[in-house]
Design a protein that fits this description.
One of its GO terms (molecular function) is nucleic acid binding. It is a single chain. The protein has 13 helices and 13 strands. Helix 10 runs parallel beside helix 12. The protein is rod-shaped. The termini are far apart. The model has no long low-confidence stretch (mean pLDDT 84).
Length: 451
């Protein structure tokens, strides 16, 4: 029994843990591990103790004070990190652990921190202020799109523009929207669009992706290029839940590329409806103007009917002719301006509206114009006929008509006072005898009483 005992190698716990530690540290050199922080604690000693875990396993870890005092961030539970260190064993507890010598944020964690820092910096510099942002033109003459020429974002923008306003010219400034060449390409495209000045609003768009995929739109040089742009910039980067630095600097942020195209393009159907309303208002205005002139003519006719002297009648007739000419000129000028305006609008709409619809509306407008002119002409002819009838009526009751029948009118010399009684004249008195044609100068030789 003593021999068997002497042949056994008996380990103490301390010796076993010590040798196990040596085997671990010798077999595993310095290595990198990516994991999520869990159970983070920092006692008064300043050392960091935490757990590294992934979806299937976890590992106890420690980072001593002389290594963690220069960390550029505060380790928090749930943070994804990349650590460098070595495997070891804590002999006092026999605990397998990872001794960390270096730690940095991994993946989107570092990007998110850089995003927040740049956002605070640019906000302090005033690049996000609403006062510096410009309103978009209601009816842009041309649109610039800065995006990948092969991406879905460009196809979405063009699809929306074809539906809403196909006549709007579009200039594409092709750039990479991901990778190391993306940010300088976007800056160059913004500079080129401003230099060429072919469009009056710019769309900066791309489809969705991770924070890393969208990082070109979070770079400071891109943000400052957007702020320096003389042309208004609309950003439509990613999906509705994605936000980039470019969104905050741009004059307007759209949740998607399609929404950006919706925001900058007018609706052709709404324009057509507005033109219909304007045409209807023009027709109503012309009808009211004609009715007003007709009422004015009726008023003039009434005033003429109450006055019989031929001279006044002639003056009013001349005034009516002048009013008629002015009304015709005014109506013609209004029609000419309306026709010019309609022709301009029709020319702008030819490329964006079905030709059949525009042609039908043009014919309707021409028929309405013809009917209006005919109605005006009929009313004027009717007014002239009434004026001629009134003239004939006045002529029939005029004293001149009586003279035409052979009668004469004796007048006191130098006045228009007619002589009605022989007792009103004396022998040798001179009289004017007015005939239908001409006047006789007579002298009275004798008078006879009416009896």
């Amino acid at each position: 029994m003593d021999d068997i005992t002497q042949q056994r190698e008996i380990y103490t716990v301390s010796r076993l843990n010590l040798e196990a530690r040596g085997l671990l540290e010798a077999h595993f050199p310095l290595l990198w591990v990516e994991a999520e922080l869990f159970n983070v604690s920092r006692p008064a000693s300043g050392h960091l103790y935490f757990t590294l875990k992934d979806t299937h396993a976890q590992l106890s870890a420690a980072m001593f004070r002389n290594r963690n005092q220069h960390l550029g961030f505060a380790p928090q539970p749930g943070l994804q990190v990349l650590v460098r260190g070595r495997l070891s064993l804590y002999e006092a507890r026999g605990s397998y652990q990872f001794i960390v010598e270096h730690m940095e944020e991994a993946g989107e964690g570092a990007l998110r921190r850089a995003f927040d820092e740049l956002k605070r910096k640019l906000a302090a510099a005033g690049l996000f202020d609403a006062q510096r942002k410009r309103a978009l033109p209601a009816y842009p003459q041309a649109l610039g799109v800065i995006t990948s020429p092969s991406g879905a974002a460009l196809r979405d923008v063009i699809s929306v523009l074809r539906r809403r306003f196909p006549a709007l010219p579009v200039y594409v400034y092709p750039v990479s929207v991901q990778g190391v060449d993306a940010a300088p390409g976007i800056v160059a495209a913004l500079a080129r669009a401003n230099q060429e000045a072919r469009c009056d609003v710019l769309l900066l768009v791309r489809g969705g992706g991770s924070l890393e995929d969208l990082w070109a739109f979070n770079e400071e040089r891109v943000a400052r290029a957007i702020a320096a742009s003389e042309l208004p910039v609309v950003s439509g980067v990613g999906h509705e839940t994605d936000f980039t630095i470019a969104d905050f600097v741009a004059d307007l942020r759209a949740p998607t590329p399609s929404a950006a195209a919706e925001l900058v393009s007018p609706d052709a159907q709404q324009i057509l409806h507005r033109l219909d309303r304007l045409a209807e208002a023009l027709r109503g205005s012309l009808q009211r103007h004609v009715a007003q002139q007709a009422r004015h003519l009726d008023s003039l006719h009434g005033r003429l009917a109450r006055r019989h002297p031929v001279r006044q009648l002639q003056q009013y007739a001349q005034r009516i002719d002048e009013l008629d000419a002015r009304m015709r000129r005014a109506a013609a000028q209004r029609q000419h301006r309306a026709a010019d305006r309609l022709q301009t609008l029709r020319t702008r709409l030819l490329a964006q509206s079905p030709a059949r619809t525009l042609d039908a509306r043009s014919k309707r407008l021409a028929l309405a114009r013809h009917a209006l002119r005919r109605a005006m002409s009929d009313q004027l002819e009717t007014a002239r006929g009434r004026l001629a009838g009134l003239s004939r009526t006045l002529s029939a009751v005029s004293p001149l008509a009586t003279l035409e029948r052979g009668y004469a009118l004796a007048l006191q010399p130098g006045s228009l006072t007619p002589v009605r009684d022989a007792a009103d004249v004396h022998i040798e008195q001179a009289l004017e005898v007015r005939l239908a044609r001409g006047t006789l100068l007579c002298r009275v030789e004798a008078t006879e009483d009416a009896t």
